[in-house]
Amino acid sequence: MNESTAPQWHRPGRFEALGPAFFTYLQPTPVPAPHWVATSASTSQLMGLNPEWLQTDEALQTLSGNAVSVPSPDGRKPLASVYSGHQFGVWAGQLGDGRAIMLGETSLGFEVQLKGAGRTPYSRGGDGRAVLRSSIREFLCSEAMAALGIPTTRALALTGSPLSVARETLETAAIVTRVAESFVRFGHFEHFAARDMQEELKALADLIIDQHYPECRTATALQGNAYANFLQAVSERTARLLAQWQAVGFCHGVMNTDNMSILGLTIDYGPFQFLDAFDPGHVCNHSDNQGRYAFNRQPQVAYWNLYCLGQALLPLIDSEELTIAALDSYKTVFPAAYATQMLSKLGLPEDAAGTAPADGRFALLVNPLLQILADNKVDYTIFFTRLTEAVQQAQEGNIDFEPLRDIILDRATFDAWSLTYSEQLAQVDQAQAADLMQKSNPCFVLRNHLGETVIRAAQGGDFAPVQQMLAVLHAPYDSHPAYADWAGFPPDWATTIEISCSS
Ligand SMILES: Nc1ncnc2c1ncn2[C@@H]1O[C@H](COP(=O)(O)OP(=O)(O)OP(=O)(O)O)[C@@H](O)[C@H]1O
Q1: Are 176 and 116 contacting, i.e. CB atoms less than 8 angstroms apart?
Q2: Which sequence spans correspond to the domains of the chain?
Q3: Does residue 76 have its Cβ closer than 6 Å to ligand 1?
Q4: pLDDT (0 to 100) of residue 10
Q5: Does ligand 1 lie within 6 Å of residue 127's CB atom?
Q6: Mind listing the pLDDT tens digit for each residue in 241-264?
Q7: Which among 99, 178, 272, 285 is the best mutation to test ligand 1's pocket, defined by most ligand atoms within 8 Å of the CB?
């Protein structure tokens, strides 16, 4: 194999350069008889890898955690990082990468982690492993989110092993190779703040600002305070992320502060779910007895989590007033971003007269529509794809709403809404509206039953469906006639799928 086709590691990586207070060097624990489950050509391309490398045995061994010679021939020095966090609203103390091991940072600046690669000093009684079922979900969903245009960690590869892993039943092990420009979470900052380790707190903030938020150094807002500007920038990225989650109907399920990315990425695909029938109070995590992370609470929870980050950054900002002001931006950015997303789903571009939600069309159309979808338990994704088709096929402004009426019980209320909608739509360019809707309303999202279907095939030894589903989810706005079933209503058994935190 030509060595240049393998990832080129940059040593020390930027995170590694922070020093030993932030991590522990360690090697992944090898697994028996590793095999490929799936790979992502898209992530490989993003990382500038030669796609042929992913076909090699060297890649299989490396990405299963089996290439553990010390020192590694390619100069890697894997590590697990320490962080803390609030879980379900309660301070949980020290956590850390309990089953994720960072192989290193590539020369193009991507950190590469193996999730499920064995125990670390932060495993706290866990086995350091992940099972095939949850790993398929993480692999597919992180790639699906990227294709939907939603910021996320990426997945490069998924490998499996016959190694038994005990969960509710005995399952087999798998390892997701995931990739991000940084895996730093709110919890990393909370960790050093809680221990009053101000030097480390500052070093971490400086690293992230310099690498990912350099504009905060020169910003004049918030009295030119770089750390306050940093907090504001993170608040705004998080607000935009949440707007995208809510608009696509994505329920994360475990929005603990250790699962909040400092780059505003979606991270940690555990009990997540895309809504089937629209239910604003939906709780996708069966371990979340209080419904803390219900779908409609997510924006509020993100704000709560940002407060924890603000608290952690307070010693650096050195002003309560500036900290509160920085966090306040969330309150304007989230509603505006959400309204823009929702109006786009309806084919209505931002109004020059004023951006949403000041835009009266939000109150006029979006709130009543969501009420109709909730009252009638209408499938969220299918409603918007049918509406898109209806607008695309409209003749001289006449929209045939029958395919939508078909899935709504209370037709009188819907008819009134569709009348108002038609009037608003008539005020914008029809072709532009149809185009906007096409780009805003995916036909394919990773619904629970779709994940379950490919998981069952993979558990029976057939991995081809994982790769096929990845191909469809990589182009979610296309119609893929051969896979029309995957864009259809969920089967009855979908409601019996229980996804908990045990993965
Ligand atoms: N099987 C396991 N073995 C060891 N540690 C674990 C295991 N499962 C979870 N943890 C640790 O418990 C904490 C909370 O777990 P959580 O489910 O939020 O994360 P995760 O899914 O393991 O990983 P990540 O957030 O990195 O995607 C983390 O510190 C995580 O590393």
Answers
A1: yes
A2: 3-82+92-184, 187-344, 347-440, 448-496
A3: no
A4: 86
A5: yes
A6: 999 999 999 999 999 999 999 999
A7: 99
